[in-house]
Design a protein that fits this description.
single chain; 251 residues; alpha/beta; Rossmann fold; Arc Repressor Mutant, subunit A; 2 domains; four-stranded antiparallel sheet; globular
Length: 251
């Protein structure tokens, strides 16, 4: 597959495509379905790149400056791929700090499959066979949410992070956070309302440091609650039993 030189050009490139459908990477090993997806998305105005396996997808996304809002506006990701499966692709993207929106499109539709997908950092989940019209609507929704943040700032309700440093505020009050506390909070705030597994959060914050366990994450969550929630009478950092954590989405 030939890749456009501007594939990962950053925030400006992604927003420049907003008047059309945006740029989408479709990762699917079924050639017939891949061709149908590419054709339909192009008809809907999207700029479509394709990959047929997980390694190729990671090379496309991590070979440039994938730092949260890359030139690729969204990824349509199958789970059952040759070599590296879709769950591992999503997990590695998040561990590398790449938060490009991911829509999983797969035949695995059981509740535990969907929970695992969201736990690995997916933004949405479609079960095959699905309507191409619904795929387009969901893609536009996750791309719109991703592009709505002001450059350099990440906000959920009255919580705001300065993405250029480690500063954070709740309302008008500045929060005093350590670097790791900030990183954990940022990971949760990038996916408001979405449950992230403890392993996915650990991977996103600490990478492949084998000495870090989910129990250490629990300690940081407790510290964050004491700094971010309790002084303000809030309980936005939620525990989802046997799954992980999420930050409450604003109503």
């Amino acid at each position: 597959m030939s890749t456009s030189p501007g594939l990962l050009a950053g925030v400006a490139a992604g927003r420049a495509l907003a008047s059309s459908g945006g740029r989408v990477l479709v990762v699917e090993d079924d050639e017939e379905l891949l061709a149908a997806l590419r054709r339909h998305l192009r008809e809907e105005g999207f700029h479509v790149e394709v990959a047929s396996d997980g390694e190729q997808a990671l090379a496309e996304l991590l070979g440039g400056t994938c730092a949260g809002l890359p030139g690729v506006g969204a990824v349509v990701l199958d789970l059952l791929l040759p070599g590296l499966n879709g769950r591992e692709v999503c997990h590695r993207l998040r561990a590398a700090g790449c938060w490009v929106p991911v829509l999983i499109a797969t035949a695995y539709g059981e509740l535990e499959d969907r929970l695992a997908g969201f736990g690995d950092g997916a933004d949405d989940y479609l079960v095959k066979p699905f309507s191409l019209a619904e795929l387009v609507v969901r893609l536009r929704a996750i791309m719109r949410r991703s592009s709505s943040q002001e450059p350099g700032l990440l906000s959920v309700g009255d919580l705001t992070l300065d993405l250029g440093g480690t500063r954070a505020w709740r309302g008008g009050a500045e929060l005093v956070l350590s670097r790791r506390e900030y990183d954990v909070l940022r990971t949760l705030m990038r996916r408001p309302g979405i449950v992230l597994s403890r392993n996915a959060i650990v991977a996103a914050v600490w990478g492949r440091d084998a000495s870090v366990t989910p129990n250490l994450l629990d300690q940081y969550i407790s510290r964050l609650r004491r700094k971010v929630d309790e002084p303000f009478g809030c309980s936005d950092i939620e525990t989802v039993l046997r799954v992980g954590y999420r930050i409450r989405a604003p109503h």
